[in-house]
Amino acid sequence: MPGKAPRRPRRWLRASRVQVLNLAARYAESAAWLYEDAGEVEQAGRWTDRASMWAYEIGDDEMIAWTMFRGSQQAMGRLLAGDVLGLAASALRQSGHLPAPMRAAIVQQQAQGHALDGEERACHRLLDEAHELASPVNDDGDARSGHGSFCTPAYVEVQRARCWLELRKPQRAVATFEHALPALPSVYRRDRGMALAGLASAYAGQGDPEQAVTTATEALNIARAAGSVRIINVLTSVERSLAAHRRLPTVAAFRLALAEAVAC
């Protein structure tokens, strides 16, 4: 009679589970980002929660901080200033152990929460801090620095422009977007598309519908190529802001192109 297979030691099982959950948390966080870009916000939140739960179980402080940051980003999309600030603050409780690019990403997220709350001084103080933290970051798109590697000085300045929009100062947003956009790595197509959509919104806000449409059309081309519903959602807001100019041929053409993209 063959003997029974030897039992695996509990320590071996524990080590294997840690490895599996470490990988699962990273895949879950990636899935959350993909759902968010596809416009499926609830699913994005569910996968972020799973990543956070698995990271907590294995004591991965960096991933716990990152999932708090991701939750803060998702709260920004729902315009929940309290949640944006609370989740970012929770992420920063690990700040002594986090790489500088990751801290920069979280600090600029706090700044966005303050912009949503109308707190201009606190917002720009934090953006200045994030810019300084990001100054050594030189990312060409391979994410070699891990979480937050995308948070270059140019990225921080794009977020500053978005904050100017939240603070209802479109002229300052235009100037900041125009300065920061050329420095964004070309590999980050979705970031560029989002920045262009923000710039289009700023042009519309300062009463320049022709420039808004030109920029929005460039963003729409990126959204179509990348399959990004997130960019299209911003452009839908731009289209609504141009309602008073709907008789302009360029605006009418953009509205038609956007409607076709939404229908796809």
3D structure, described in words:
With 264 residues, this protein is mostly helical. It has a domain of 62 residues. Helix content is 74%, strand content 0%. It is built from twelve helices and no strands. The longest helix has 28 residues. The mean pLDDT is 91.
Task: Produce a short descriptive summary.
The protein has 264 residues and is mostly helical. It has helices spanning 10-37, 41-58, 61-77, 81-92, 100-116, 120-134, 153-166, 170-180, 189-205, 209-226, 229-241, 249-263.
Element layout with pairings:
Blueprint lengths: L9 H28 L3 H18 L2 H17 L3 H12 L7 H17 L3 H15 L18 H14 L3 H11 L8 H17 L3 H18 L2 H13 L7 H15 L1
Shape: globular
Radius of gyration: 21 Å
Supply the number of helical segments.
12
* Residue windows where pLDDT falls under 50 for at least 5 positions: none
Number of strands: 0
Fraction of helical residues: over 70%
InterPro entries: TPR-like_helical_dom_sf
Protein name: Tetratricopeptide repeat protein
Organism: Nonomuraea maheshkhaliensis
Keywords summarizing the entry:
mainly alpha; 264 residues
